[in-house]
Amino acid sequence: MKQRELLRRAVDAELVPRDLEARVRTGLGQGSTAQWGRLLSSIAMLVMVLGGMQFYAMQKTHTLQRVGLDDHLHCAIAGEYPHQTEKAVMVQDLGPYAPMLQPILDLSPGDPVVSAHRCTVSGRTYVHVILRRGTTLVSVILTRRRDKEAFPGTLATLVSHGNSAHLHEGEMGAYSVAGFEAGAYLGYVVSALPDQQNSELAGRVAPVIRRYTGA
Amino acid sequence: MLRFSAVFPRTQANRDEFEAAALPFLPEIYRTAVGLIGNRDEAEDLAQDVFMQAWKSYHRFEPGTNMRAWLHKILVYRASHFRNKFFRFMPFGNKEEQAVDIPVEPDVPDHLSDRQVAEALSQVPPPYRETLVLADVREFSYQEVADMLKIPIGTVMSRLSRGRKLLRTKLTEKGL
């Protein structure tokens, strides 16, 4: 007999385990299940990571918004602001930030200015312009950024306004806070106005402030 | 036409199609695996592994092409883990890479049992054994074997020639 035939016969004489096909079929089913399991666990992991990032971003945004709100509460609401009647006094109090005053006033012609000054709250220095809309005081605030103070750029906290000013809006208690970055500064518009009106004003003020801060 | 992984759903219908096309080759794949690695337990694992891998890669299989050759290609690839273990200690001379004429097959003792022939095959060094199994037992062409093993066709021919001689020697020893 030829060697090749002998060899073929010997190899094909090997008995196939009876349950091998069943095990292969089971393995194929588990493979699909395992694949779905891996996919689902990957999605779950992604959701957790995104959720965690979102939570962190919201916490950080809240903390930075609090910086602006603190000044608004201390000066405007508690009435600690200097009661100025002369614009010249306001310009003097603002010092190097005085050139920003008129453009801000020009943006809200119906809202008279109540005070414009520099103040310190909890060891932090602010440039603070207070306007009045009806019976509501509106604060336009500027303060220097400290280390790593930056609004997170996530969708849930970021709102773009018509003139592409990136605002980080939120309601804190009875107040609407719209924060934004302006170069080396953080800017805010804080008031008890409805959120939309507050943000609308912030959307107009932010580009002006950025221009003066070189952002 | 290739079916892309991202859009190839692993549905029950697709699995049924795969099983219908691939599972008829399971006995052959198992037996080839035994021939290649000479160990039944490992051959069972290997055969299962081949079908799992084939199912994962089924979107790459072109319908209408040779399922049998495709499965054997996967088998050879997966078996390479075993093969590498053996290859590490296999001395290869330059002669091995030279194409040689394949001599006419001589007769061998036909009173040998299948078990004795299988034993003789398992004693042939793996590189020659796998060439013998793929070319002489499974009758793949030299080109197909070269593609599966990723070696030149001349090397296939030389390994086959050497493998046949080695096997004949083993068979003759057992036939005495």
Descriptive notes:
- The complex is a heterodimer of chains A (215) and B (176).
- By secondary structure, chain A is an alpha+beta fold.
- Chain A has a single domain (59-213), classed as MucB/RseB, C-terminal domain (Phosphorylase Kinase, domain 1), CATH 3.30.200.
- Chain A is 47% helix and 25% strand.
- In chain A, strands 1-2-3-7-6-5-4 form a 7-stranded antiparallel β-sheet, with helices on both faces.
- Chain A is rod-shaped.
- Chain A starts with a helix and ends with a helix.
- Chain B is an all-alpha fold.
- Chain B has 2 domains: 5-87, RNA polymerase sigma factor, region 2, helix turn helix motif (Rna Polymerase Sigma Factor, Chain: A), CATH 1.10.1740.10; 95-175, Orthogonal Bundle (Arc Repressor Mutant, subunit A).
- Chain B is built from 8 helices and no strands.
- In chain B, helix 2 runs antiparallel to helix 6 and helix 4 (67-87) crosses helix 7 (142-149).
- Chain B starts with 11 loop residues before the first helix and ends with a helix.
- The relative contact order of chain B is 0.13.
- The A-B interface holds A 1-4, 6-14, 16-17, 20-21, 23-25, 27-29, 31-32, 35 and B 10, 15, 18-19, 23, 26-27, 30-32, 34-35, 40, 44, 47-48, 51-52, 55-56, 105-108, 110, 112, 114-115, 117-118, 121, 132-133, 136-137, 164, 167-168, 171.
